[in-house]
């Protein structure tokens, strides 16, 4: 366990934080873009399947599917941030998951 806590101490102490300047902006955008394309394609097929199945609560399936896709994408970025020891990427990923779950909760409370 001390190894795990040492890893997180190293991650959040700021010494190992990779500056965004080291990775070009175009590479970062390209990486983000190509990580979202497979999720968007899979989600499009998911929506077509749900709408074709004519389920009674299709809107719930679509809402949960969208939330699952976003949480999966944010989890990918959290893992990438942990591997490259960039605490800002990890924090933004966790924030994205919290926002996604919050929006899903608000949507479910209104229907």
Q: What is the average of the pLDDT values? A: 80
Number of domains: 1
Unreliable stretches (pLDDT < 50, length at least 5) are: none
Measured between the Cα atoms of the first and last residue, the distance is 44 Å
How would you explain this protein's 3D organization?
- The chain is an all-alpha fold and 111 residues long.
- The protein has one domain (24-110).
- It has helices at 2-12, 25-53, 58-84, 87-110.
Concise account of the structure shown:
The protein has 111 residues and is an all-alpha fold. The protein is built from 4 helices and no strands.
Key terms for this structure?
single chain, about 110 residues, mainly alpha, 4 helices, flat
Helix-strand layout with pairing:
Layout: H1 2-12, H2 25-53, H3 58-84, H4 87-110
Helix pairs in contact: 2-3, 3-4
């Amino acid at each position: 366990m001390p190894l795990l806590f040492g890893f997180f101490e190293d991650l959040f102490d700021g010494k190992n934080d990779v500056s965004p300047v080291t990775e070009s902006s175009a590479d970062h955008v390209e990486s983000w873009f190509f990580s979202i394309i497979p999720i968007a394609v899979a989600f499009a097929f998911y929506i077509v399947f749900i709408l074709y199945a004519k389920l009674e609560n299709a809107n719930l399936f679509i809402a949960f599917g969208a939330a699952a896709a976003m949480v999966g994408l944010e989890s990918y970025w959290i893992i990438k941030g942990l591997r490259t020891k960039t605490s800002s990427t990890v924090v933004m990923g966790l924030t994205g998951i919290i926002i996604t779950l919050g929006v899903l909760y608000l949507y479910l409370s209104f229907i």
